[in-house]
Amino acid sequence: MAGTRLKGVHALVTGSSSGIGAAIALRVAREGANVAVHYRGHPERATAVLEQVEATGAGGFLVHGDMAKLDEVQRMIAQTIEHFGSLELLVNNAGIEKNQPFLEVTPDDFDRVLE
């Protein structure tokens, strides 16, 4: 059952298909917020998180997009507002990493991580 601290709040949590983002999405749902669960590459993981969000009694839906592309970010925000009617909470959690030794990271790798 959802709490009430965030009752009536509509949230978009980026990178919420796994890890810290999934935990944030579940926490805000448990506090009463409706949650747009964002993913870039793993819809099955995002669907599992959405099911957990909805199990709290909160509303939710999936939103797909690449946070490094402004037009996709704008679309995701518009979809969230269209779905919920408003957007009060945005958690910018999404991120990528290159898991390799520092001296092997290329300038393109570095730029992609920062985007």
Structure description:
The protein is an alpha/beta fold. Helix content is 42%, strand content 16%. The protein contains four helices and four strands. It has a four-stranded parallel beta sheet with strand order 3-2-1-4, sandwiched between helices. It is elongated and about 50 Å long. The model has no long low-confidence stretch (mean pLDDT 93).
Portion of residues within helices: 40-55%
Element pattern in H and E: EHEHEHEH
Mean pLDDT: 93
* Biggest β-sheet strands, sense, barrel: 4 strands, parallel
Assembly state of the chains shown: single chain
**Overall geometric form:** elongated
Strand content: 15-25%
Tell me the number of strands: 4
**Total count of helical runs of at least 4 residues:** 4
Structural class: alpha/beta
Q: Strand sequence of the main sheet, in spatial order?
A: 3-2-1-4
Detail the topology: elements first, then pairings.
Blueprint (H helix, E strand, L loop, with lengths): L9 E4 L5 H12 L3 E6 L3 H13 L4 E5 L5 H15 L4 E3 L15 H8 L1
Key descriptive features of the protein:
four-stranded parallel beta sheet; 4 helices; alpha/beta; 115 residues
What can be said about this structure in brief?
The chain is of the alpha/beta class and 115 residues long. It is 42% helix and 16% strand. It has a four-stranded parallel β-sheet with strand order 3-2-1-4, with helices on both faces.
